Amino acid sequence: xxxxxxxxxxxxxxxxxxxxxxxxxxxxxxxxxxxxxxxxxxxxxxxxxxxxxxxxxxxxxxxxxxxxxxxxxxxxxxxxxxxxxxxxxxxxxxxxxxxxxxxxxxxxxxxxxxxxxxxxxxxxxxxxxxxxxxxxxxxxxxxxxxxxxxxxxx
Length: 154
Known about the structure:
Elements: H1 37-55, H2 59-64, H3 78-90, E1 95-106, E2 111-122, E3 126-138, E4 141-152
Antiparallel strand pairs: 1-2, 2-3, 3-4
């Protein structure tokens, strides 16, 4: 074994107080919330991950970005909306969602607004809209609570 020479000899005594012990990885830094740059970064990263889950047609992941207090459009019930979204995500052969000009505004410890230009492309449909998402912090994690198309075709 080539690595055998790197191991200490069996008869060599090792002082237990003079050992190098690997450190445990540090826990992730929790976003402090109120107006901090880290909150802005966390919210933008979440929105970009949401677009990736949508593009990759990962339905469960996509739906997980929406909070328990999410208000579906047109007074749809949450189960009906989820079923509708599942149909819309699984029908196309491919989906590509890209985001531009993402603007994040943190409005307190538990609320954020995000506005961006969204381009949606599939084999059957293309769309460009300006969209606004409202987010709230639920159990320490940002979730989408409202989604509005502000302007079509820009």
